[in-house]
Amino acid sequence: MSSLPVLFGTVAAATAGTLAYAALSPQSQLFGPTLVAPAQPGEIALTYDDGPNPAATPQLLDVLAQHGVRATFFLIGRFVTAQPALVREIAAAGHLIGNHSTTHPWLSFVSDARIRRELSDCNAALEDTLGASVRYFRAPHGARRPYVLRVARELGLTPVQWNIICGDWNPVSHDAIFARAMRGISRNDRSGRASNIVLHDGGHRALGAPRLNTLAATAKLIEYYSASKQFVTLDKWAEQH
Length: 241
Fold this sequence. Notes:
The chain is α/β, with parallel strands linked by helices. It is 46% helix and 13% strand. The protein is built from nine helices and eight strands. Strands 1, 2, 3, 6, 7 and 8 form a six-stranded parallel sheet that branches. It has a two-stranded parallel sheet with strand order 4-5. Helix 2 runs parallel beside helix 8, helix 5 packs parallel to helix 6 and helix 7 crosses helix 8.
C-alpha cells in the first residue's frame, strides 16, 4: 500500500504535464484543432501580434508594401478602439486581420465569462471598424483550453497558432530576430512544413512599443527568402485545412 501515494503522485504529475502541454504548446492539438502550417515548405506566413501600434505599424506597412508582401495582423481590441484609422489602413493595404482578444490575458486561466467577453468584444471592435467580419483568432501567449477554442468557433473564428516565434518583444537585435527565424524555417523545411512566423508590431501593455528591430528583421527576411519562398496570408492555408 505504501507505493500508492507515489503512484498517485506520478499520475497527477503526468496529467498536469499533459494539460500544460495542451494549453501552452503552440503546435498541440490535444484540446482541439488549430491552424499551424500545412505541408508546403515553400511558403512563409509573416504574422504580427499586439497591434495596431502607431509607433511601428505604419512603418511596417511601408516595408511590406515596398516588397509587395501581404501579412496577417492579430490585433488587440482595446488598441483597435484607440486606433481605428490605423486598423483601416492595414486592411486597405490588403493584409489579413485577426482577433487577438480585447486586453491580452492568459485565456487558459480566466473564467468562461471572461473568455467569451474577450473574444466577442474584440470581434465587435474589429467588425465595427472594418465593416466586415473577422475569421481568424490567435490566443494571447498561445494559451488556450477547450472552452477558448469552443467560443472562437461559435464566433466563426479559426484558431491559429504558429511554428516559429522570434522573441522580438524582448530587447534583441534585428540580427538575432532574423537568425531565430532562419533556424525555424530550416527546421520546418526538414520536416516538410510551411513556416508560420510570429513577430510583433506592438506590445500588449500599451501603445507605443518600440519595434524598429522587428521592422529591420522583416525586411531582411523578405529580401533573403523572396527568391526561394512564397509569402502568404493565413487564409490561403485555412482554405486547404
